[in-house]
C-alpha cells in the first residue's frame, strides 16, 4: 500500500502463518529483495517506525 508505513510486526504478521517461527533477519531480507526489484528509492525506512513504499511505484 503506497504511502502507508508498516512496522516490523505488521510485516511479520503478513509474511508468516499463525504459530510459525519468525527468522530474525527475514523482514530485512525481503525488504532488500523488494528494493532490488523496485529500486531502492521506492522503499523508505522510517526510523524507529517501519518501512513505506513511495506513492510513485
Q: How are the SSEs placed, and which strands pair?
A:
Elements: E1 5-6, H1 8-15, H2 26-38, E2 43-46, E3 50-53
Antiparallel strand pairs: 1-3, 2-3
In short:
This protein is of the alpha+beta class and 57 residues long. The chain has helices spanning 8-15, 26-38, and strands spanning 5-6, 43-46, 50-53.
Provide the structure class: alpha+beta
What is Rg?
A: 12 Å
Number of domains: 1
Annotation, overall tally of beta strands: 3
Under the CATH scheme, the architecture is Orthogonal Bundle
For this structure, what is the CATH homologous superfamily? Winged helix-like DNA-binding domain superfamily/Winged helix DNA-binding domain
Number of helices: 2
- Report the CATH C-level class: Mainly Alpha
Mean pLDDT over all positions: 87
| CATH topology type | Arc Repressor Mutant, subunit A
Strand content: 15-25%
pLDDT < 50 runs, ≥5 residues? none
Distance between the termini: 10 Å
The 3D shape can be described as globular
Topology as H/E string? EHHEE
Q: What proportion of the residues is helical, as a percent range?
A: 25-40%
Taking strands numbered 1, 2, ... along the chain, how are they ordered across the largest sheet? 1-3-2
- Largest sheet data: 3 strands, antiparallel
Amino acid at each position: 500500500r503506497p504511502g502507508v508505513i508498516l512496522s516490523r510486526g505488521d510485516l511479520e504478521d503478513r509474511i508468516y502463518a499463525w504459530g510459525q517461527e519468525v527468522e530474525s533477519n527475514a523482514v530485512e531480507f525481503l525488504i532488500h529483495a523488494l528494493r532490488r526489484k523496485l529500486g531502492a528509492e521506492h522503499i523508505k525506512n522510517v526510523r524507529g517506525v517501519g518501512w513505506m513504499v513511495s506513492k510513485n511505484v
